[in-house]
Amino acid sequence: MKINIKYFASIREGMGRSEEQFETSAIRIDSLRIALIAMGEPYAQTLALGKAIRVALNQELVSSDALIAENDEIAFFPPVTGG
Questions:
Q1: What is the predicted pLDDT for the residue at 82?
Q2: Which class is domain 2-77?
Q3: What is the pLDDT of residues 45-78, one digit of tens each?
Q4: Which end of the chain is more exposed for a tag (fewer CB within 10 A), N or C?
Q5: CA angle, 28 as apex, 12 and 73 as ends, to 5°?
């Protein structure tokens, strides 16, 4: 299925782009992230499993076990801190 991925803040900088269309067979956010990491750099370092990364699905914050579907928008961004 085809999905749209957006990257924000330091993740956008690490990826070298702000968005892309991606073809995947993953059905959950966590399996999508693993599939992206398996593609090598820059995905492997930027989206590494040990890094705290927030995810939004169609502009709503979700957990890593959220289901994804054709044409969904997935956004990856770092945790936000206030000050």
A1: 56
A2: alpha beta
A3: 999 999 999 999 999 999 999 999 999 999 999 9
A4: C
A5: 45
